[in-house]
Amino acid sequence: MADAASHARHDRLAIAASVDGVGIAVTVTTCPECGALHRDLLTIQTALRHAWTPRRQRDLRYTADDMSRLRSALWRRLLGVIGSSRDAITRPLAVGLTSVGIAGLVLSSAAIAFDGAASGAAPTDYTIEITGVPEPGAIDRKAEPERPTTDPILAASLGSLAAGGSLFALRRVARRVRGVR
Amino acid sequence: MLDSAGLTSATIAVRRDPPTVEEDLRSTTVSEDPVQRRDLILIERAREGDLDAFNDLVTLYQDSLFALVVRMVPDRDQAADAVQEAFFSAYRNLSSFRGGSVKSWLNRICVNAAMDTQRARKRRPVQPYPEFEDESWQPRAGDEVDPERIAVHAERSRVLATALSHITNDQRTAIVLYDVEGYDYAEIAEMTGVSLGTVKSRIHRGRLSLRDILVDRMDLFRG
């Protein structure tokens, strides 16, 4: 016979599992407290099966007007799915896009910082050697401003970040719409 | 979502009773089960745009689906909203019904709607679940009519519903689907989108939580 101190070490989850009839935990027969717990769990299970439910207070049938009102636009139906239990796509997609965007931004920033550091570390004690007078045409070409080059990684990262953020915002809006209704 | 005031004030399109199992059984090889044949006929008509046929399905299943959802979402108004949402979702997706049990199909849609409602409540915890009044209980068909027994049964149901409302949504859903609705672990795992082990854990931990809540009221359930 087990005492109260040893009962504290008994596996209550195993006793709860044994209610399903898969197998009886040994302590159910050897420990009085475990036996009482097992009986109570069986009693609760039986009571749950036979419990009454609150009475439904309204008729749930539809009128033709209800149907036309509820048969709403496509965007509203999409909002109804996004962020719901049936939506297994948007959240991982949003997380993935945002992560890729942040990673890309970090990489781009690191590359820019590295370039800056490299150019800053270049030797400054150089001499300018004029070897000749450039032709007029050559001066004009050099005077043209350089076109700013966009870092493709940076652009892709910003796009990914924006897309991820938009998806998060869309999920939030969808949830709010459903919650308000 | 249809608000309750709007719906009750509206005129319901159909006020007749749905067809009984015996009547209107057209020749079909779809199913030998008369209930299922009746449901499939109603689904077929609803697909053709017959709102009356769909409302017949609503009439037939609204009580059992409400009983399922109100256990998962222990707030009558929100449970009714969830069931109504589920019926409308079913109506919109009639074309996706691939045969089998209409009741199981509707059950699954209702479980999804109830889980959505649980999540919405979690995000916007306006108030704890209200306790149900004593007179609002719906006895099961065939239950006793002895007033004393009815009072005891109503009290048991009220205490159980209150205890259920105090465990987590996940545990409550798993327990209701397993212990009340009779789904097996695998079906619940598929319906709720979690692993088999998680389902078992939720059921077992939920049972222990219920017992801890009810430990001082267990006499009510004996005898």
Describe the structure.
The complex is a heterodimer of chains A (181) and B (223). Chain A has 181 residues and is mostly helical. Chain A has nine helices and one strand. Chain A is flat, with a radius of gyration of 35 Å. Chain B has 223 residues and is mainly α. Strand 1 of chain A pairs antiparallel with strand 1 (137-138) of chain B.
What's this model, at a glance?
The complex is a heterodimer of chains A (181) and B (223). Chain A is an all-alpha fold and 181 residues long.
Give the beta-strand count of chain B: 1
Uncertain regions of chain A: pLDDT < 50 for 5+ in a row? none
**Basic shape of chain B:** globular
Between the first and last Cα atoms of chain B, what is the distance in angstroms?
43 Å
What is the H/E order of chain A? HHHHEHHHHH
Number of strands of chain A: 1
Distance between the termini of chain A: 58 Å
The overall average pLDDT of chain A, rounded, is: 77
Low-confidence stretches of chain B: 1-15, 23-28
Question: Which chains have the largest interface?
Answer: A-B, 45 and 70 residues
Into which percent range does the helicity of residues of chain B fall?
Answer: 55-70%
Largest sheet of chain B: none
H/E order of the elements of chain B? Answer: HHHHHEHHHHH
Structural class of chain B: mainly alpha
Hey, roughly how much beta strand do the residues of chain A contain?
A: under 5%
Q: Strand portion of chain B, in percent?
A: under 5%
- The total of helices of chain A stands at 9
Structural class of chain A: mainly alpha
Chain oligomer state: heterodimer
Total helical elements of chain B: 10
Radius of gyration of chain B: 19 Å
